[in-house]
Every structure is written in C-alpha cells, then in structure tokens.
Amino acid sequence: MSAARTDATFSPPVMAARRWIEGVAFPDDRPLINVSQAAPVAPPPPELRREMARLVVEDPGSHLYGPVLGLPALREEVARHWTRAYGGPVAPDNVAITSGCNQAFTAAIATLCGEGDEVIVPVPFYFNHVMWLDMAGVRMVPLPTGDGLIPDAGAAAARITPRTRAIVLVSPNNPGGVEYPAETLRAFFELARDRGLALIVDETYRDFDSRAGAPHDLFSRNWEDTLIQLYSFSKAYRLTGHRVGAMVAAPARLAQAEKFLDTVTICPNQLGQRAALWGMRHLGDWLAGERAEILARRGAISDTFPRLGAQGWRLLGCGAYFAYLEHPFDIPSDILAPRLVEAAGILLLPGTMFRPADDPAGARELRVAFANIDKVGISTLLDRLAAYSPA
Fold it and tell me: What is residue 169's DSSP assignment?
C-alpha cells in the first residue's frame, strides 16, 4: 500500500504541545502561563459581537452560500484600505477572501506548484506552511537567516533551481517576530520578478507592525506578475473561530485559486466576512488600541529581558505576537519545553518545531507567543524562566 499524503509531514505542533498539559495540576499560586499559540483568546469586542448577533437574526445571507472568492463588499473594502495603506493600486478583483490565512497559502501553492516543484522558505519557518508543502508534494528549500533572523535575497538566489516556483516570506515574522526591512522585501521582489518566480508575502500580523506608514512599497510597482500577499482578519478583530483571511494577487491567479477554493469550502464563512467588513468600517480606533497594547508588551519583553541575558539567554527576535529565544541549557528544546510545563508552569513551543529535523539550531530555540499575556504576565514569565534550572 502506498503512503498517504498526510504521512509526508509532521503532526500539528500546537496540538502536540497541548498534550503536555494533560493531567498536570497547576497550583493556584502558580497557574499555567500558556504562550504556545499565536491567536487571541478573547472574543471580538462587544460592539462587533452585537453586530454579529444582529446579522444572525436579520440577515438571511449570513447563513447561505456566497461567491467562492468572497463577499464583493469585503473585497472592495480591502482594496480601498490596501490602496491607501500601501500607496499602490489594488482593485477588488485583486482580492479573494479565504477561510483563514492558512487557506490563502494553500490556494496560492495550488496555483503555482506541481509534484516535485520547490519553494524557498526562510528558517525558522511557520510550520503550517511547511506541512502543506509536504502534503502537496512540493519540496521546501530552507533558507538560513542567521543573526537578526532576516533572510538575504542573495542567499536565496543561490538556491533557485529549474524547479523553483516561489519564495515565501512572513513579515512581521512567525515565529521570530522580526519585521523585515522594506529594502529586504524589495530585494526579494526584484529577485522573484527577474527569475520569473512568485513572491508570497504573508502579512498576517501587519496590523501590529511597529513602523509608521507602509512596511514596503511593493504594491506601487508593477506587482501583479510577481506578488501574492496573504492576510488574516483573525488577529485584527479576534475572529479566529470564524476563519476569514485574504489573498491579494493578479485576477488571473485568483481565477485559478477559485478552482481550489470551490472544492474545499465552496465559500468563506458568511458571518465572519460580514464581521470583518463591519470591523474594517467601524473599528479603526479600537484596532489602533490593540496595536498599542501589543507594542507595549513587545517593549516589556525587550526592557526586562536583560535579567535572562545575564544568565546566557538570547533574544533572537521580538515583535508582533512573538519573542524568539535561545536558551543556555545543555538540553534540546524539544525536551526542555515539555519539562517547563511541570517545572515552571509554562507552555511554549520548542525551536525544533520551526526548523528542518536536520537543523541543529532548533535545539537551542524556544518561541513565546505573548499576545494573550499582559505586562505583569510577561514579567512573571521571565521570572519563571530565570528561576528555572534543569539540574
């Protein structure tokens, strides 16, 4: 019997990590600090929930099939926002709404790759991207990033082969948190354009970028033949359970993506789309406050990290929802992380979940997703890490 496609990849990392806390009791004076998953655990703001309740009762369309590529009004709203934010033309027919950003990625790969093709991915990587490449029969070509976790276009150029179809970038980055400089994105865009490749830029965390203004100028270029941008409404409006994302690309590519999307979900979640549209129109100030809070938490990690630095820890990257750490212990991170559950009351993910199995760097790395802990919680987290000793 031949192996199934799903045998080609690893188990979902977040689900694997959740099993570490099964049967573990956490005392009242040291509750679990869960920094394993990059998703808001709070519901949408009250005004958005009230609007969603109204839609459930009053809008029959929120319960029916809709267009495969998404609600026209939401596509138009994204196009308006993106044109204003990035300073380049994005039209409604450049926008597809998907069932979350992960589905946008799978759809993009479906339009680009066949069996045995290659996609260049910086490491450490976002594991769901690699899981899909594995299951699609596409070879992931790892691109080391080194200090600063910023990939280099020249290094990527050396890894291009006749089977290369795309380069994938995530900025702000998951798992590293770093924001790729505009010149880095421009260099990758020019490389992809010159080599006839697609550049997939996942900007799931764009709403929490610390920089003022557009993080890049790619939409102000002749972008349609090269750029595919991915986005998620989940983080901005706390709509994780409603699964609403977006793919911005050339209309011809979206026509191909429509074939894939129609066979998987038929259409995106209707209630979630309407909620995202209402959020884009009414929650600008609220979202600005969410961004300010995330940036304050980022600052709290950077400001207080020296207490760990004095013990040999390194802060490799920090931003958006993430801090990416290098630990000082003579123990692999995939053994250390489960031990931290009982020994320190911390659930986080080991770097081995974000690198190829033969990459030794992952054994020294840990990812902290800090979106759901406040500054007090961050201080407690760092205190517990500072107090931990494997001896």
Answer: E
Domain assignment present for residue 51? The answer is no
User: Is the separation of the CB atoms in 121 and 168 below 8 Å?
Assistant: yes
Distance from C-alpha of 379 to C-alpha of 342, rounded to nearest angstrom: 19
- So what's the pLDDT on residue 2? 62
If phi > 0 it is left, if psi is from -120 to 50 it is alpha, else beta; for residue 146 that is: left
Same domain, residue pair 116 and 203? yes
**Which segments of the chain are extended strands (E)?**
33-34, 95-98, 118-123, 139-144, 164-170, 198-202, 227-232, 245-248, 314-319, 322-326, 346-347, 349-350, 365-369
Looking from the CA of 358 toward its CB, the CA atoms found within 13 Å total: 2
Q: Are residues 254 and 142 in the same domain?
A: yes
Query: How far apart (Å, rounded) are the C-alpha atoms in residues 230 and 328?
Result: 35
Q: Which domain holds residue 160?
A: 64-283
Give the pLDDT band of residue 1 (cuts 50, 70, 90). low
How is 112-143 classified by DSSP, letter by letter? H--TT-EEEEEES--HHHHHHHHHTT-EEEEE
Helix (H) or strand (E) holding 34: strand 33-34
Residue type, 294: I
Same domain, 251 and 307: no
Q: Which letter, b or e, does each residue of 74-95 get, where b requires 16 or more Cβ atoms within 10 Å of its Cβ?
A: bbebbbeebeeebebebebbbb
- Does 188 reside within a domain? yes
DSSP single-letter state for residue 353: G
**In terms of domains, do 298 and 355 share one?**
yes
Q: Closest Cα to residue 275, out of 9, 71, 13?
A: 71
Could you tell me if 281 and 270 are in contact, meaning their C-beta atoms sit under 8 angstroms apart? no
Residue 292 CA to residue 350 CA, distance in Å, equals 28
- The total number of residues shown for the chain amounts to 391
Q: Taking residues 347-358, report their average pLDDT.
A: 96
Alpha carbon 256 to chain centroid distance?
A: 23
> Is the model's pTM score more than 0.90?
yes
Given a contact cutoff of 8 angstroms between Cβ atoms, the answer to whether 208 and 321 are in contact is yes
What residue type is assigned to position 331 of the chain? I
